Amino acid sequence: MGVKVNPNLMKELKEFGLDDANKCFHCGNCTAVCPLSTPENPFPRKLVRYAQMGLEDKILESAEPWLCYYCGDCSDRCPRGADPGETMMAMRRFLTSKYDWTGFARKFYTSETFEIVAVAIVGILVGLALWIFHADSPNMEHAYLNSVWPAGSIEIADLFMAGILTFLLLSNTWRCVKFVMGDMLKKIPLEIYIKQAKELVVHFITQKQFGECTDKMQWFVHLLIMTGYSTIFLMVAVFLAGGLEVVGLYWEPIAFQRDVIYPIWHPMRLLGYYATAAILYGSTYALIGRLRKSKAPYKKSHGTDWMFLVLLQLTALTGIFIHFTRLLDWPMPTYVLYVVHMMFAIPMLVLEVPFSKWAHLAYRPVVLFLTKVKEEYKRQQEAA
Where are the domains of the chain? Predict the structure, then answer.
């Protein structure tokens, strides 16, 4: 069977941030220095070669882009300045666009203008909706959000958003699974998938493979941002079915949208504090690193990298401000800040999660899980 070649692949990948791959002359230093590269799954050199040869189908079925966390060791050691770590990052953007059946991901990654305009439009629409559909007689003596936006209406809107997000993310993740597994998807017995399912959970929660990289600070920052954001996302988009909503720095039952401040040691309030602190520290570290270009992963920042960090920062900061205005019982500042907060938070959820960098939180652990499934299947076949 012939190999299909895409002669325009390098040009296409350049739209996703690939600049220096042609400098590579395949010395193998990048693969040798990478602590995560294995004989079964060698990278980055193999993926660079695929790009140079126009082997798009090979890239689509490759797990290696998701096995890389871009610690930067390979880019630092490259004698040609080919920046293989950034090549792997560009591959992940390219793959994210291929997994997305709507085409929005490709637009976000290849047009900064499109991404900025899309985020701005969604934010403005959220602000207008909250302004138009607020109660006629909000409480102006005390800061009661429920007096402005009734809990029932907010719950319906949140559940609608959660349903759309879940559908988009799961459908795109399924496309990822089909690309990576190919014909093996149905050949491998179900019991192997079940046996390796723990890998999916472990890698999602701990990001333990990143911990094997030499730059432990990068792993720590990545873990903070991932766990902080995932905490908020799960509470908003998943646990809404149980009637929970995020407000400021803590969660409360949306079925009642009680305007009470939980005790300082309340579990929900502690989770909110952790999520906000983790996001604020992690995103600040990453933003400063990108401004200073302090290490290889921060020297070449794509527009989507800046967008998700800025939205994270603004969501966390406005959440903090809301928390204090509620503690001080200032009605109008609380209501205004809540609108602003949602104008940043909702675009991040409905656009960044299924179509941009946040989708990596789903794809990476899924691909790591599938890699373990393939390895176990191969082991059993060899033992038979």
Answer: 9-99, 104-383
